[in-house]
């Protein structure tokens, strides 16, 4: 039996490409199923399954803990709920460990008992970073350096904790299973054991994860299915700006984003990111247009740049960054149909969304169209913001959350806002 280490699907024979997730070279031979044992992890013995009557069960109120970061609390839905297992991924050096050390210090300063468990660094290394990012280490913060899950679980069962951080989940080893730490079976077993303990003890567990070169959490997708929250920390805009976003959240909205500033002494909230972003963006040059997108429930100003040139190829090129290529193809076809004098179907089109933000909602269609038209005509859209979805007939529609976008634009002092009422069809732009 062979198992895909990306998505967990099984096949009777080895395949070069997984038919489920379409990843290449991900199949490996599945290890023999381990014999069940009552090992020192104590999960089976400590937390035996017990059925309860739904009608007579008295649910305990779910507490939420504030992380000390407004932006992180916002992403989590108002703080992190007790018993939550949260997986956080991001490139090496992006600030995952620093952020969670600060979160634990904030928890401890409020009277909670917390632990930072590192499988990659010594206590001396963790302590050195802690002293750099925290002004006065609180009493309730404990450190441990170990890779043996059994030893770690013994310590967690012996002393009650309100929250812990595991750095990283890929470094821990379940000694009842064969295979190296970070392997598919190891990751599933370690995550399952920690999740079972978190649910029974109502402890918050943060799991730091390594990512692949494509930016996804390394390992099988089943790990993301086991946990309650999946978050990513990414660099966006300036060198020191970080965006934290959720891909999954059982206790809040998915897709929410927050912004942080990473400095020498650690992370801080960047609540004024939208205002700072506007001051750095410009549509004074031809080929540039400003739109407003939704990142989760947060409206954000984006600058779209387009470069449109006569093509020397039989099939014109479409090169995009930060937006779907299919979407650009469709909008280019609509422009070619509605404004034929631009001859857009015979031109190469290059699109870039500044700031490292990806556009996934149709409410920025009009801004994309405006940028392409401006590049062809050579006329800039000075101090103009575009809001709207564009249909196949060239009609401009308000799109999702138009009022929210419009209010944000007004709050940021945009006076010239073009939308469906002023531009009923894109032919008016040509």
Automatic annotation (TrEMBL):
Sequence ranges assigned to domain RecA family profile in this UniProt record: 61-211
One biological process term from GO is: recombinational repair
Coiled coil location: none
**SMART domains in the cross-refs:** AAA
Lineage top rank: taxon: Bacteria
Q: Give the keywords, sorted.
A: Metal-binding
Supply the SUPFAM superfamilies for this chain. Answer: P-loop containing nucleoside triphosphate hydrolases (SSF52540), Ribosomal protein S5 domain 2-like (SSF54211)
The record, for InterPro entries, names: AAA+_ATPase, P-loop_NTPase, RecA_ATP-bd, Ribosomal_Su5_D2-typ_SF, Ribsml_uS5_D2-typ_fold_subgr, Rubredoxin_2
UniProt keyword Repeat, yes or no:
no
GO cellular component, as recorded: cytosol
Gene3D superfamilies from the entry?
3.30.230.10, P-loop containing nucleotide triphosphate hydrolases (3.40.50.300)
Give one GO term, molecular function aspect.
ATP binding
Tell me which PANTHER family the record gives.
DNA REPAIR PROTEIN RADA, DNA REPAIR PROTEIN RADA-LIKE PROTEIN
Q: What is this protein called?
A: DNA repair protein RadA
Q: Please report the organism this UniProt entry assigns to the protein.
A: Candidatus Dojkabacteria bacterium CG_4_10_14_0_2_um_filter_Dojkabacteria_WS6_41_15
């Amino acid at each position: 039996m062979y198992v895909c280490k990306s998505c967990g699907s099984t096949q009777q024979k080895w395949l070069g490409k997984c038919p489920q997730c379409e990843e290449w070279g991900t199949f490996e031979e599945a290890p023999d199923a381990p014999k069940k044992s009552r090992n020192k992890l104590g999960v089976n013995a400590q937390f035996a399954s017990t059925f309860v009557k739904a009608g007579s069960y008295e649910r305990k109120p779910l507490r939420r803990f504030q992380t000390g970061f407004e932006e992180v609390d916002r992403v989590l839905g108002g703080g992190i709920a007790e018993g939550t297992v949260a997986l956080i991924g991001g490139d090496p050096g992006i600030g995952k460990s620093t952020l969670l050390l600060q979160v634990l210090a904030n928890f401890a300063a409020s009277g909670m008992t917390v632990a930072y468990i590192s499988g990659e660094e010594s206590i001396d290394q963790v302590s050195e970073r802690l002293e750099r990012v925290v002004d006065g280490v609180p009493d309730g913060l404990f450190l441990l350096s170990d890779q043996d899950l059994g030893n770690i679980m013994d310590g967690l069962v012996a002393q009650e904790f309100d929250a812990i951080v595991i750095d990283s989940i890929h470094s821990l080893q379940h000694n009842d299973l064969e295979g190296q730490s970070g392997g598919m079976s190891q990751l599933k077993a370690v995550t399952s054991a920690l999740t079972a303990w978190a649910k029974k003890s109502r402890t918050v567990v943060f799991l730091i994860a390594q990512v692949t070169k494509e930016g996804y959490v390394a390992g099988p997708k089943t790990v993301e299915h086991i946990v309650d929250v999946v978050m990513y920390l990414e660099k966006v805009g300036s060198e020191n700006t970080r965006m934290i976003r959720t891909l999954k959240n059982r206790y809040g909205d998915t897709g929410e984003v927050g912004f942080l500033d990473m400095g020498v002494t650690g992370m801080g909230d960047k609540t004024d990111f939208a205002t700072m972003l506007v001051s750095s963006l410009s549509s004074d040059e031809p080929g540039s247009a400003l739109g407003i997108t939704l990142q989760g429930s947060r409206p954000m100003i984006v600058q779209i740049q387009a470069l449109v040139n006569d093509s020397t190829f039989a099939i014109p090129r479409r090169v995009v960054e930060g937006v779907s290529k299919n979407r650009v193809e469709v909008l280019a076809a609509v422009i070619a149909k509605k404004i034929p004098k631009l001859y857009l179907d015979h031109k190469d089109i290059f699109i870039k969304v500044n700031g490292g933000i990806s556009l996934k909602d149709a409410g920025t269609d009009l801004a994309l169209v405006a940028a392409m038209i401006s590049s062809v005509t050579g006329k800039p859209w000075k101090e103009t913001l575009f809001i709207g979805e564009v249909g196949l007939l060239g009609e401009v529609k308000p799109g999702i959350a138009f009022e929210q976008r419009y209010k944000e634009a007004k709050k940021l002092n945009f006076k010239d806002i073009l939308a469906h009422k002023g531009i009923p069809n894109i032919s008016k732009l040509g």
